Amino acid sequence: MSRSVRVVWDDALISYDFGPGHPLAPVRVELTMALARELGVLDAVETAGCAPATDDELALVHRRDYIEAVRRVSATGRPDRAAGLGTEDNPAFAGVHEASALIAGATLAAARAVWTGEAEHAANVAGGLHHAMANTASGFCVYNDPAVAIAWMLEQGATRIAYVDVDVHHGDGVQALFYDDPRVLTISLHESPRTLFPGTGFPEEVGAEGTAANVALPAGCGDSGWLRAFHAVVPPLLREFAPEVLVTQHGCDSHALDPLANLMLSLDGQRTAYAALHELAHETAGGRWIATGGGGYELVQVVPRAWTHLLAEVAGRPLDPATATPQEWRRFVRERTGQTPPLTMTDGRKPEFQDFAGGYDPADPIDRAILATRKAVFPFHGLDPLP
């Protein structure tokens, strides 16, 4: 389905590094790109470099005094807790501005390629830093690259952009930055804020004219429940909103092995979601699709395989789940991490779900979450919240 695809990459993107022991280890992106390269995924796309986002570009969503604060931390390595840098989640480090601006620049490069028609789809797996706020770092995120890209497209004249976030954590930064802007529809599927950071993302958070939709799923939700929720909420809203561009964030920390969260998806369930978003990009946004990475803290077993599947889907050449991981990549994993690499590109699951249109069970916590979101948001769009 993909006519032209651009993957934005620069080896310097792994300089976004909060230090040893921090969960957001840049090796996860390094292993992803190595696996995609070894499996020939990158042969099917145009790989392009990027430049750091300028201060003017960052200021599309971030306050100037915050950018200056990040620059000071970057020059000295000294914390600035008012800016959110120097905490356990967001340690201060020398070069933080340059590393963060480069990630924002990579997602901007993807957005430019899609907006100008140079590419139909574009991806930056190093991006997806969705927690950063206008004036503070948060949740491992310094500059909010998806929001910068969305704001840039609005500056170019876009009137309807949809953002779908499948990270296990609520996409709070992107939601907050566009909460009162009816031109941007944000949809986030995440673990309930009652059990997970950042404590936001309740269905009652609906934004301007119902342009924020939040599906707060119970801990323990697996493939079938997650996919049921996705299909009950995302396709109807995208079809009604009819965005000019679809922007997606693909944190893979919803996986059962992720150490920081409590959902139970498999790699196969995640891959199924990528395919659904690809189809929706063509159906609702004329094929214009910008995909980013996001969270994901099982660095060897999950992230590289999940995002290699994502890149293959973006390229329009999805991988057979039974594909073996290449021997050279396995050697590289052992060399870089000392861990045992996965042998195939699957968890051996075949995700299935029952469509919500067939009726709902009021005793089921997943169905209650779905219905809460639909009741809160669907009427704004002229949609019936009941199945």
UniProtKB/TrEMBL annotation:
Transferase among keywords: no
GO biological process: acetoin catabolic process; epigenetic regulation of gene expression
PANTHER family attached to this UniProt entry: HISTONE DEACETYLASE HDAC1, HISTONE DEACETYLASE HDAC1-RELATED
Family that this chain belongs to: Belongs to the histone deacetylase family.
Protein name stated in the entry: Acetoin utilization protein AcuC
Species per Swiss-Prot/TrEMBL record: Planomonospora venezuelensis
Pfam families: Hist_deacetyl
Family annotation (InterPro entries): AcuC, HDACs, His_deacetylse_dom, His_deacetylse_dom_sf, Ureohydrolase_dom_sf
Segments forming domain Histone deacetylase: 22-313
SUPFAM superfamilies listed in its UniProt record: Arginase/deacetylase
MF GO annotations: histone deacetylase activity
Entry annotated with the keyword Transcription regulation: no
Functional pathway: Ketone degradation; acetoin degradation
Keywords of the record: Acetoin catabolism
